Amino acid sequence: MNHSANISHEAVLRARVALLGSEVLPLRQRVAAFRLLAQVSPPAYLPLLAEALWEYDPHEFAHRPEIKLALRAESVAAARRMHAVEPGWAWLLVTSLVHYEEQLALMGRTTEAGAAAEEAARLRSGFGPAAGR
């Protein structure tokens, strides 16, 4: 089934125009555009979405750790999807996992943080001399 079948072509066009405009969009708007466009062009927009989700200013959700955790988890999910399609994006998944792990640790969820750290370490061990960033 085509996931983009239910997406408004007008919404896709608006998102692309907004991203291509001469003004720098606020992060919240970029994330919204990347979320939409990742549904129609995953290889192009999943990496941008993953990065934008961990870039949220830490102070923006300082009093809402559950929102920060959800954003980090969404970043990991986007990075996982990208890595599944193109294993060369392992560095993106590692970086997303590190941000996720940090938020879990801040929230005292040490078991989950440890699992994220272990997964990142396994991925790092697969990096060759010329791989990743």
Question: Please, could you describe this protein's structure?
Answer:
This protein has 133 residues and is mostly helical. The protein has a single domain (3-125), classed as Serine Threonine Protein Phosphatase 5, Tetratricopeptide repeat, CATH 1.25.40. Helix content is 71%, strand content 0%. The chain is built from six helices and no strands. The longest helix has 21 residues, at 65-85.
Characteristic key phrases:
globular; 0% strand; single chain; Serine Threonine Protein Phosphatase 5, Tetratricopeptide repeat; 133 residues; mainly alpha; 71% helix
- Count of domains: 1
Q: What is the CATH architecture descriptor?
A: Alpha Horseshoe
For the termini, the CA-CA separation is 34 Å
Q: How much is the radius of gyration in Å?
A: 16 Å
Brief synopsis:
The chain has 133 residues and is mainly alpha-helical. The chain has helices at 9-20, 27-40, 42-55, 65-85, 90-106, 110-125.
SSE map:
Layout: H1 9-20, H2 27-40, H3 42-55, H4 65-85, H5 90-106, H6 110-125
